[in-house]
Each structure stands twice: as structure tokens, then as C-alpha cells.
Amino acid sequence: MPPPNLEALMDPTSQTAPKNALGLKNTQAFKAEVSARSAPGGAKNIDQTGWTYLCGPAAFLFCVARSKPKLYSAYMDGLLKNGVGSIGNLKITVSEAFKKRQKPAVMADADWYGLGPLREQTGGTAAAAGALVGSRGMQDATFPEQMMDWFRSAGWQSVTGRYKTTANASFQTLVGAQQHHLAGDDVVLLVEGAVVDEQRKDRPCFAEGANHWVVSAGQFTISTVWPSRSWSTALTATSSVYDPYRVCGHQRRGRSPTVGEIMLDVYTWGDIAPSSPYGRQPIERFLSGFYGFVAARPPS
């Protein structure tokens, strides 16, 4: 008879923790995180905080969890049990190299394994479009072409995109994004992060350029009546605190001739909130950091 494994006897989790392909010690916590994200209204809990370059995968997986929570749950279950998860024809494998990466302490296991391998495995299109491999070993950016590939492979329909990665998109493109939103499509917006994050003090000040993905997730109203009385009052009351035309120290007035205001709720950084801390912002300010969108209709 072999001698007892004293180390296992002393560790109560070693006998109860089920085997899994990710090597997690606490699979119950992982399952609870997945359950929370697939519950009604729970998709916003998907959060890439701690690994900025995962905003593209986070935006995509938010759409999956929000529109088709069962597909999201099956994808995550496959990753846990077999190290391979599928959403339609999109098949993602957790590589041995990824398992050895250091997970950010602030990031949930479900988000780390749900987002990271997706970014790592499918960086080919981004690389072809000119993205550089960052020091962290994954593509630094998710290009619109890659976002569209994900939606198509996952089974989303009528996938379309209107974008510019090196120049601001037009007012007509913004209206197009709104129309897709109102039609019930998933709409992912490519923006300069500062346009939606500047006033959130726990977020870094982004550099200028197309560097962040968000998802329209609630109100999406465009008004060309300017200025509204309520907006003028808000500016007067807060002018010493908030300049709607200043983004991370850069003046943005005058980049667009479009006059009006936008009220837009977006999913970003594990939450859904207005794109402006005061609920609305000048259209020309938003356009100064807007580069386009990808839209797709969830499968029936």
C-alpha cells in the first residue's frame, strides 16, 4: 500500500476541487463569475481592468453575454472543462503559454480566461493591418476588421462597419451608428478613450487616437438643437469644474462644424454609464474622438 499523501490530506481543497483545463484551484468562484455575467443585466460585469489592450475582446464578449447569454456560458464552460471554447464557428483555445501568464490581481478569472485567449489567438488580422506586438505578448489593438471577423464567426448577421483608424469619423457615421442601435443591432464604437473616460478619476488619461472600444448600451440620442437651456445651465453651474471642450488638457472646439449635443450610454470598463459625466456633451467634442463603429445583428 502506498504511503498517504500528507500534503493532500493537509489541504482540504485538494480533494474537493474538480479537475479543470485552466488549472484553477477554485472553480466554484469561476462558475459564479460566469453566472453573474450571463444573468439579466449582468454582462456589464465583464471587465478588462488591469489589461488595457483587452477592451476589444471585452466589447465583443459583452455583446455575446448581453444578447445570447447561453452562448457566453457555453463558451466559458468549454474553456474551463477542455481549454477550448466556441461561439458559433469562433473556436478559441487557451494555449499553454497563456496559462503561464501573470493574471492582473484586479481581474476576475472569468474575464482573464474569457478575453485573453481571444485576443492572443486571433491577432492575425490586426497584425496584417499594421498593429505592433506589445511587450505583454499580445496584439496591442483590436482593429475593426478583427471585430467584424469575430461577429461573423460567432453567427451574428448583417455585420457592417464604417470607420477610419487614422482620422475622425463624420457626423453621418455617428448617425449611422445610432440607426443601427435603434434597429436592435449590437453597436461597438471605436473612440479615443478620453472622450468617454476623462472625467472618471480612477482611469488613466488616454493619448489621442483610436484606442478604445465601447458598446452603445442604453440611451443614444442626437440633437442638433443648440444650445439647449438645460445644457447651458449645466455649463454655467459647473464651468469651474468641467470644460466640455477640453479632453485631457487638449482643446477640441472647432474640429467639426456640426452643432448640437449627444446623449449616449456606453459599456466600458465593467460598467454602463453616460459617455459624459453630465449626461450629455457637444457633438463636436464627441466627434473629435470618434473613429467609427461596427454593427451586427444577434442570431435569432
Description:
- The structure is a single chain.
- By secondary structure, the protein is of the alpha+beta class.
- 38% of the residues lie in helices and 20% in strands.
- It is built from 13 helices and eleven strands.
- It has helices spanning 6-10, 13-16, 27-38, 55-67, 69-82, 96-99, 109-121, 124-128, 144-154, 171-182, 193-197, 229-238, 283-287; strands at 84-87, 90-93, 157-163, 186-191, 212-223, 246-247, 250-251, 261-268, 271-274, 281-282, 290-297.
- Strands 3, 4, 5, 8, 9, 10 and 11 form a seven-stranded antiparallel β-sheet that branches. It has a two-stranded antiparallel sheet with strand order 1-2. A two-stranded antiparallel sheet has the order 6-7.
- β6 and β7 (250-251) form a beta hairpin.
- α3 runs antiparallel to α5, α4 (55-67) crosses α5 (69-82) and α4 packs across α7.
- It is globular, with a radius of gyration of 21 Å.
- Mean pLDDT is 79; it is low at 6-15, 124-139, 199-205 and 226-257.
Instruction: Output the number of helix runs.
Output: 13
What overall form do the CA principal axes indicate? Answer: globular
**Tell me about the biggest sheet?**
7 strands, antiparallel
Overall residue-averaged pLDDT value: 79
Quaternary assembly: single chain
Classification by helices and strands: alpha+beta
Q: Helix fraction? A: 25-40%
CA radius of gyration is 21 Å
Order of helices and strands: HHHHHEEHHHHEHEHEHEEEEEHE
Helix-strand blueprint:
Blueprint (H helix, E strand, L loop, with lengths): L5 H5 L2 H4 L10 H12 L16 H13 L1 H14 L1 E4 L2 E4 L2 H4 L9 H13 L2 H5 L15 H11 L2 E7 L7 H12 L3 E6 L1 H5 L14 E12 L5 H10 L7 E2 L2 E2 L9 E8 L2 E4 L6 E2 H5 L2 E8 L3
Antiparallel strand pairs: 1-2, 3-11, 4-5, 4-11, 5-8, 6-7, 8-9, 8-10
Helix pairs in contact: 3-5, 4-5, 4-7
